[in-house]
Write a structure and sequence with these properties.
This protein is mainly alpha-helical. It has helices at 5-24, 29-32, 43-62, 76-94, 119-143, 153-159, and strands at residues 103-107, 114-118. It starts with a helix and ends in an 11-residue tail after the last helix.
């Protein structure tokens, strides 16, 4: 991993999303329908939303139709494949010189809604969106008695070998 701040942020973002998907793979359809007050909705729909919104952000930023995924009924296994592809897409996108103030024009092809937002806001929004909804799925997992995956940035750093922790000598 390079020292790029965006690379670290997006590598964590993809890693954490994949860990949440993996934590849900063995759940029953009934369990995946679990919804907790204050969250977006059922876990399966929330995971799909995170992954497909992430792909949409890449499509909006790059114009690459490979990220124009419009299947709100993807399975968890398919969502995992899409998220892995998103990871490659983010890596390629953030490796470019980026102007955080460059305006990006988004058009919803279904209803014509339009938005103009700077690249910096789109990038921050993608990271924030993933964090928010991953947390919601983890909350729902706990209501089922399932230990949610450890997905914070420090856990990622430990897993990636980028962070070392040491307890004080007793």
């Amino acid at each position: 991993m390079s020292s790029s701040l965006l690379e670290a942020a997006f590598t964590h973002h993809v890693w954490a999303t994949l860990r949440v998907i993996d934590a849900c793979l063995d759940l029953s359809i009934e369990d995946l329908k679990t919804s907790v007050p204050g969250t977006r909705g059922p876990m399966l729909e929330t995971v799909r939303h995170v992954v497909l919104s992430d792909a949409f952000d890449l499509f909006t930023l790059t114009g690459d139709r490979a990220f124009d995924v419009d299947d709100e009924h993807v399975s968890l296994a398919e969502a995992r494949v899409v998220m892995e592809r998103n990871g490659s897409g983010w890596a390629e996108y953030i490796s470019r010189p980026l102007d955080p103030d460059e305006m990006v024009h988004e058009v919803d092809e279904t209803d014509g809604y339009q938005r103009w937002a700077p690249v910096g806001f789109r990038i921050a929004g993608a990271l924030n969106h993933g964090t928010d909804h991953r947390s919601q799925v983890c909350t729902a997992l706990t209501t089922l008695g399932v230990e949610p995956p450890q997905i914070d940035v420090m856990d990622f750093g430990l897993d990636a070998g980028r962070i070392v922790e040491k307890m004080p000598d007793a």
